[in-house]
Amino acid sequence: MAFLQAIIDGLLVGGVYAVISIGLTLVYGVMGIVNFAQAEFVMIGMFVSWFAWAYLGLDPVLAAPLSFAVAFGIGWLVQGQLIARVLKAPSVAQIFLTVGLLIVLENGSLLLFGSQFRSVTTSYQTQSLSLGALFISVPYLIAFGMSLLCGVALWWFMRTSWFGRAMRATAQNPMAAQLMGIDTALMYKIAFALGVGLTAFGGAVILPYVTVFPGVGGQFVVLMFTVVVLGGLGSVAGAVVGGLAVGVIQALSSLVFPIQLQNLVLFIVFIVVLAVRPQGLVGASR
Amino acid sequence: MKRWIAIAAVIAVAAVLPLLLNPTGYWIRILTFTLLFAAMAQVWNIIGGLANQTSLGHAAFFGIGAYTSTILLLKFGLSPWIGMFAGGLLGGIAALIIAVPTMRLQGHYFALATLAFGEVMRVIANVWTPLTGGPGGLSVPFMPPSVAAYSFKQLLPHAYIALIALIVVTFIFEAIRRGAMGYRLRAIKENAAAAEVIGIDTTKVKLQTAVISGVLMAMLGTLYAQVAVFFDPDTVFSAASISIRVALIAILGGVGTAIGPILGALFIIPVEELMNDLFSASAAGLSQLIFGVILIAVILWRPRGFITVFDAMVARLSGRAGS
């Protein structure tokens, strides 16, 4: 029973991991940049949502679109002003530009908001539905539902809209896309802004069960990389599978190991996957 | 010949400089750490610059070195000079363990794998309390001051040891760069497939650089432990303040050049200290924020490091002289 319970919890939490990580894989898929600062947008999403809750009285989950919008705006500027300049630079320059961004975002929020932990109180925070002997936590369920909604919306956008198709064309062959009249610089901006927006959205929906502080992004860095590497860097469908897998691995390992070792299991899975199948377990489909 | 005179002059200045500073003061501490971080960045440069593999996990080897010599001193009273070599051995083994499965990975993937490896070591050091003292950290026991015990009353000897370490690793770096291994590494960097065809065992060469870099980094970990006197897992295995910082120093200075890490350290360590001093009391995060902004600015301005500024200056001067 504990096993089944862990699987359920893992899947629910993993759905959010998927949405948080889709942004990372999307940016890589479209322009070949690994954004080491991506996890900081979880933090930004959480802060936006917390302030919306504290000052506007909005439920943190309903504030998620606001988090998305704020991060989208920041992402648009970051891509246009910073990332665009290193697209052709050596990979060390790309890596360290985003590392610099990570330092700026984390310490900027420390400066603005202070180091204290902030959490929200909601009516459903401690509720759970019982399903026989199993329990389904309501905040987990809501976060999962919102993530699902967000994932479907993204899928619809990428499949059916002109922008989605243009973005996929840019990912496949930027030169050819440009010849077809696609503004690739614009596509990069949309991809990056959309990517960090999704990550911030995921940050907002977990606020009912995770406290926010400036360093909270650090808890998600390796987790997000594990998700995208499991699914194959650049693959959106892979990130969904990877997210669910990481959620389940975390939940199951907490049954066997003490809580401090939870991340260790994740790290080792991550290194083993990188070593054995760097293209991801799902395969290299975009 | 001219080159050797220049090198000798720089070393002479570096050797006299510590004597001019107050031996118990603030500046000698900054100097010691600048020299130590320059050495660490130089060691990173062997794998990051020559083999072109961006490691973000060098804290793993650094921490192994710090812990090995300190634990040997605590449990068996072994001199850190011997512990340093034991740490180097373990650091080399650790480098082999992580490099064998990941050396084939390119660019971002290798960076990610090594980042995770550093974190694995940090978690292990936090959890393995009977050996490492866990999150509470370890204090290096006080020994009667002597060279043999690697224990001194003042920072001055530490500054000289760090200087010697920097000179040694810089010579090792140059020897590799100019030697047969350097040629092989350059061939791999230019075109890995072609290098294979002409008979270079690319995996073996890269593994050698990884192990050399791991051994030296671990030995520098012992130097750090002896200066710092106290450390915990989150300090010596830190992704941000060790792994990323040493890579950053080499990159800002100029990757793959012997002078790069030294320039980088001379810039970053004092600037960081200065900003910590100026701002940490008034507003938490401000000094790191400025540091991040400087980092972004330098990468956008000079993606190949400060060294290019000098190269451009030299080119301009010699161009003028020629015309």
From TrEMBL, chain A:
GO terms for molecular function: transmembrane transporter activity. It comes from the Bacteria. InterPro entries: ABC_transp_permease (IPR001851), BCAA_transport_permease (IPR052157). It is found in: Cell membrane. CDD domains: TM_PBP1_LivH_like (cd06582). It is a multi-pass membrane protein. Belongs to the binding-protein-dependent transport system permease family. LivHM subfamily. This is Branched-chain amino acid ABC transporter permease. It comes from Rhodopseudomonas palustris.
From TrEMBL, chain B:
One of its GO terms (cellular component) is plasma membrane. The chain crosses the membrane at residues 5-21, 27-47, 59-76, 82-102, 109-128, 155-176, 210-231, 243-269, 281-301. InterPro entries: ABC_transp_permease, LivM-like. Keywords: Cell membrane, Membrane, Transmembrane, Transmembrane helix. Pfam families: BPD_transp_2 (PF02653). It is found in: Cell membrane. It is a multi-pass membrane protein. The keyword Membrane applies. GO terms for molecular function: branched-chain amino acid transmembrane transporter activity. PANTHER family: HIGH-AFFINITY BRANCHED-CHAIN AMINO ACID TRANSPORT PROTEIN BRAE, HIGH-AFFINITY BRANCHED-CHAIN AMINO ACID TRANSPORT SYSTEM PERMEASE. This is Branched-chain amino acid ABC transporter permease. It comes from Rhodopseudomonas palustris.
